[in-house]
Amino acid sequence: MAKNDDNLLKKIVSHSKEYGFIFPSSEIYDGLAATYDYGQNGVELKNNIKQYWWKSMVQMNENIVGIDSAIFMHPTTWKASGHVDAFNDPLIDNKDSKKRYRADVLVEDHIAKIEGKINKEVAKAAKRFGDAFNKEEFVSTNPRVVGYKEKIASIEKRMQEAIDTQNYDDFKTLIEDLDISCPVSGSKNWTDVRQFNLMFSTELGSVAGEASTIYLRPETAQGIFVNYLNVQKSARMKLPFGIAQIGKAFRNEIIARQFIFRMREFEQMEMQFFVKPGDELDWYEKWKEKRMKWHKALGLGENSYRFHNHLNLAHYANAAADIEYDFPMGFKELEGIHSRTDFDLTAHENHSGKKLQFFDPQENKNYVPFVVETSIGLDRMFLAVLSAAYNEETLEDGSERIVLNIPPALAPTKVAVLPLTKKDGLPEKARELIDELKFDFTAQYDEKDAIGKRYRRQDAIGTPYCVTIDHQTLEDNTVTIRDRDSMEQVRVAIGEVRVTLEKSTSLTELLRKN
Fold first, then answer.
1. pLDDT tens-digit map of 183-206
2. Taking the model in full, what pTM does it have?
3. What structural domains and CATH numbers belong to the chain?
4. I need a labelling partner for 461 at 20 to 30 A (CA). Which of 81, 100, 231, 494 fits?
5. d(CA 21, CA 9)
């Protein structure tokens, strides 16, 4: 069952700011809605996630290469891709509060309330029947729960039909029928539903009247498609092959919320895999399996993921699924795997007049390849890692600690080197060790406060290991290594510190699980 824990999300937001993971953007000017800055620990975690994705996608696959395309692209790109005409959200205003909402989000929030009623019924029944409780049987036979589920299905069907047919009168009627009120004013005095394009526009050129309207890219995929032929020819790639990219994208979301889950400026990690027409659905299934394996290798919880297969497909797709993660606000999309057919390359062929085809020597003919896409939100992946890692623990002595159990390979700092005291040559010995380790590992030196307080600080930022330099170190060159998760301490020779770090914090072992 989904977490749906607002309290956990609030704790993560607070912890992220206090410990240098994420700050509200432009905070000294009261911030800018739904934009965030990654702090000193956040940027390290973010870069480690990027490395994990890039190495598994590009370094570990001989037939996948990477690019870094420009954010600004020729405006016809977005005409060809369909974003100019079809990249819209349905909006509705409340006349009393003057607040604007996404119509689909209002309906989804209403559905979430019904789901909450189902969860309450399940919780009551579980308490009543104890160990004998069969959840699957209960939700499929209990009249009240079945009624709720049927109501949800009916609402979802009506909303999807309104979206598919762009019948915004029906959309408004649905909101009225559900008796949805404005969260701010409480009134039901709604305007009509209308379309709003999500692309940010700007002007290219410095002379008034000569500027050309261009857009901040709403996705990174098109930068791959327009470079398909350049990469294929220069790298002499044969089908099947992929092009990967990590980059910023921008969407003028009206409802940007849930911390970094939905923002107007975000980062994507995408790979477009070009295949022979007819092979795309086999590759689609392979990439679904590979991507799920990549996620589960991190150990964030076997039951924290699920596939959501799309029944209503986008016009360019013949198969699509999301990998959903159990965020604090419930199961939400983390990554999309889509079979995009030949829509994108064909559209760019038609608009550019350039042939974007592959010559197949075996069949002795040219054709436009089909594409299987994997697309993951880097910021959402960051939030998934933090959500799984955040733990409040009560220890045997009754004391408490907040610890981030971040997978060691992703941890912002891999090791903290701590002299027991600030005197007797211990700081100098600690500096010797850290100066050697920092060539290969992110390391911190800390000599302030009692050793217990320093351990807690490192726990709070997710540092897997603390190495303590004490007076015995000066005698026999041994140190104490403390494990973050178990808090166990072992005495080892100073030369073994590097071996421990290499074995436990390297991306190599994670990649082997892929």
1. 888 899 999 888 877 888 888 876
2. 0.83
3. 1-76+213-392 (3.30.930.10), 88-197 (3.30.40.230), 395-512 (3.40.50.800)
4. 494
5. 14
